[in-house]
Design goal:
12% strand; Protein-Tyrosine Phosphatase, Chain A; two-stranded parallel ribbon; 8 strands; six-stranded mixed beta sheet
């Protein structure tokens, strides 16, 4: 089982419970998978207060709709149906269940003992999903579940192709505004149609830097795909920040309002969000004002965490990868920059 499901999600459940429902008697309970040792439970429980304090230090506008504490539950290929509990067969009267589902079965012992079975490999969807995404799966769930297993690869390929063909240029109404002057969206992204908007497109094709600048209002950076793109983001961020700073520094045109930067990537949730985070930290101070060119600025982990927290609050569907965030941190805090 991945650490994200066995440890990270349970930690977040308890942290959110204590932050959102501090007076609830069940909020402090930490639930971990039964295969973890008591010493692991004690170690993780000791870290919870510091995590809660770190969350509160971000000073986010947290939601207030949660009425019962969150509780993680784990579903694997070896799981047995959960017994019903409580009067009338009601399940989880005291908690909101958070289902942690993994395609990997749990292995006790070494992989050699299990005839080469690699624990956790099934959770890397790039190895088996054939491009299937949650959105495509749920849009065609009945058709997929009814198809014979041998027909699934061809069916998935067909559905993924149909989904891609339906994607059109996102309209301004579909942009996700992360800050007053920075928005994100998915590709494809047409050239801007107003003089107060500039576009930064992060494409999956690998292109040389000298070909990135398409116009004074359009930068198209070819970073490649997946983890390679996240790593290449580090090297591209100086150019993106310089491009956006030059555009924003011109100020608004007469009567047109503040200038806007729109960043797009293939999903609209990973690289574009990472680039937007870097732009927010590098170009704007804590009051949302554009930094003075050449002015010395100090970038800290606390600053990046606070800006990322604000972005995730504005756009909960955002999902910047660890590699993307590492590139942003490296760009902002590397003394060699």
């Amino acid at each position: 089982m991945p650490d994200a499901l066995s440890t990270t999600v349970p930690i977040w459940c308890t942290v959110l419970n204590l932050a959102l429902l501090p007076a609830h008697p069940l909020s402090a309970a930490l639930f971990l998978p039964p295969h973890l040792l008591p010493s692991t439970h004690a170690h993780v429980a000791a870290l919870i207060p510091s995590f809660v304090a770190a969350l509160r230090a971000l000073d986010l506008a947290l939601p207030t709709a949660l009425t019962k504490p969150l509780r993680p539950l784990w579903v694997t290929p070896d799981s047995l149906p959960e017994p019903r509990a409580g009067a009338g067969g009601a399940l989880f009267d005291e908690y909101r269940p958070v289902i942690c589902c993994t395609a990997s079965r749990r292995v006790v012992g070494s992989e050699v003992d299990e005839a080469g079975y690699v624990q956790g490999a099934a959770d890397d969807t790039e190895n088996w999903a054939c491009g299937l995404t949650p959105a495509v799966f749920w849009a065609h769930v009945d058709e997929l579940l009814a198809a014979p297993e041998a027909d699934l690869p061809a069916l998935i390929s067909q559905l993924v192709s149909q989904h891609e063909s339906l994607r059109r240029d996102p309209s301004p109404a579909s942009y996700k505004r992360l800050t007053p002057q920075i928005s994100v969206c998915h590709l494809p992204l047409s050239p801007p149609t107003t003089p107060t908007t500039c576009h930064i497109a992060l494409t999956t094709a690998s292109t040389p830097k000298d070909a990135w600048l398409k116009s004074p209002t359009c930068l198209e950076a070819g970073l490649g795909k997946s983890k390679t793109a996240s790593r290449n983001l580090r090297l591209a961020l100086p150019d993106m920040c310089a491009f956006a700073a030059g555009f924003l520094g011109k100020g608004p045109s007469s009567g047109d309002g503040p200038r806007q930067v729109v960043v797009a990537c293939d999903s609209g949730k990973d690289l574009s969000v990472g680039a937007a985070l870097a732009l927010s930290c590098h170009l704007f101070d804590d009051g949302g004002r554009l930094r003075v060119p050449g002015e010395a600025a100090s970038f800290t982990k606390a600053l990046v965490k606070a800006r990322l927290g604000a972005i995730m609050t504005a756009y909960p569907e955002a999902n910047p990868s660890r590699q993307t965030l590492q590139s942003v941190n490296s760009f902002l805090m590397d003394w060699r920059r």
